Amino acid sequence: MTSATVYDLATKDLDPPFAVVDLDAFDANGADLLRRANGKPIRVVSKSVRCRYLLERVLARPGFEGLMCYSLAEAVWHVEQGTSDDIVVAYPTADHGALRRLAANDRARAAISIMVDSPEHLDLVDAALGQGHPEIRVCLELDASWRPLPGVHIGTRRSPVFSPRQAADLARTILSRKGFRLVGMMAYEGQIAGLGDAAGSGAKNSVIGWMQRKSIVEIAKRRAAAVRAVRTLADLEFVNGGGSGSVESTGAEAAVTEIAAGSGLIGPTLFDGYAHFSPRPAAMFALPVVRRPAPKVATLFSGGYIASGPAESSRLPTPYLPEGLSLLGFEGAGEVQTPVSGEAARHLRLGDRVWLRHAKAGELAERFTHYHVVIGDRVDRTVPTYRGESQNFG
Questions:
Q1: Helix residue ranges, H only, the chain
Q2: 8 A C-beta contact, residue 374 and residue 356
Q3: For residue 147, with 0-12 CB atoms within 10 Å meaning exposed, 13-18 middle and 19 or more buried, which class applies?
Q4: Are 315 and 299 in contact (CB under 8 A)?
Q5: By three-state DSSP, how is residue 191 classified?
Q6: What does the pLDDT average to over 210-236?
Q7: Cα angle for residues 124, 129, 133 (degrees, 5° grid)
Q8: Which of 48, 197, 156, 174 is nearest to 113 (CA)?
Q9: Contact 13, 226 (CB under 8 A)
Q10: What is the pTM of this model?
Q11: Which residue of 187, 199, 339, 354 is surrounded by the most CB atoms within 10 Å?
Q12: What share of the chain is helix, strand, coil (3-state, %, to 5)?
């Protein structure tokens, strides 16, 4: 049977739209991440999964250790649910309510490290909690972008801390402030981890590959120097780096103690364009055919699940099964209808399913309250996403 037939059979009693997770693919992707990490522990990036059942499943596997959350409120919730007792919040917080929940929960304060990249982040915590607040674990973020020339910035816009000296200066500030304990460092090299080197034309891929090779060398040297400078001041518990697209290069750095990864578990379309690894599509969604406006066009209900990032076609969902379908350039994926065209559309009838993949790993969970977990040709269980547990962390 083709994959479409298997998924159709497994979900024959369900009415689309709905989303599924292929558990065999999810587990295989986890095994591949561990292989690529070559023994270095992987911290699971929650934003790429956003489903507690799947997070708990992967965390139960040796080699995966702790969560990297995108929101402090999310991190506190996971501690309350018992998902993990080792959580790094990857982005600074300005959520006074979540900070108060953190300070009031001894178990959460022992488990969670918040992100800082300036003294102002410490000031914000003091303003939320008042002087004399309980000790808060903090992680210092080093900017990992590549800056080959003055004024040239390649990578994500994150921390203002770029040099080893700046890292050491901030570490001293943290250590001088009551109510804070410096426990870790993080640096995310998005220009390597989040940019496919086999997604475009040959010339574009060559340029990206050249940039990434240069950037890998530069960040390894600078990160090692920054870690040395900070370790002379504080006994760091962890140094986190990387992402699903840079597991090998980040893991090869002696200064890095753990690797962050999440999208590689799901295998969204933005991760189809890497030369050195190919995750299996593990999450997808089904839409029903509701119109047949032309012999080679079928119109699907709903489907406008656009991914975040630059407003371009790479952020659109992609028809997956049956093979041979594509979106119409004029309409794209719509709020209430999504036309698809191609030879395969000739054989689609009203009520048939078309399976699509999302561009980003975790954002599909914001569209559906539940994932139907498929094993082979059956639904093994139905589990809530964050939305299904009435959680919305922004």
A1: 3-10, 23-37, 52-59, 72-81, 96-104, 106-111, 119-129, 164-176, 190-193, 202-231, 247-251, 263-266
A2: no
A3: middle
A4: no
A5: helix
A6: 93
A7: 115
A8: 174
A9: no
A10: 0.95
A11: 187
A12: 35, 25, 40
Rounded Cα gap, residues 95 and 81, in angstroms? 20
Please name every residue paired with 318 in a beta bridge, in sequence order, or none if there are none: 357
Number of Cβ atoms within 10 Å of the Cβ of 116 = 25
What is the distance between the alpha carbons of residues 361 and 283, in angstroms, rounded to a whole number?
8
Supply 374's token pair. Answer: 């498929």
* CA–CA distance, 286 with 341 (Å, rounded to integer): 16
Percent of the chain at pLDDT exceeding 70:
99
Give dist(CA 52, CA 37) in Å, integer. Answer: 23
| pLDDT tens, position by position, 272-307 | 988 888 999 999 999 999 999 999 999 999 999 999
∠ Cα 300 305 306 (to 5°) = 130
pLDDT over 90 (residue 227): yes
pLDDT at 101 over 90: yes
Q: Tell me what the pLDDT averaged over the chain comes to.
A: 95
Longest CA pairwise span in the chain (Å): 71
Report the C-alpha gap between 394 and 71 in whole angstroms: 8
What type of residue sits at position 268?
P
The least confident of 35-49, 120-134, 266-280, 374-388 is: 266-280
Q: Position 341: which residue type?
A: S
Strand partners, 20: 284, 372
Rounded distance between C-alpha atoms, residue 310 and residue 362, angstroms: 17
Is residue 303 classed as helix, strand or coil in its secondary structure? Answer: coil
Q: Tokens 């009435």 label which residue?
A: 390
Q: Give the pLDDT mean for 253-279.
A: 94
Position 105, amino acid: N
Report pLDDT for 2.
Answer: 61
Give me the residue label for tokens 């940019």: 195
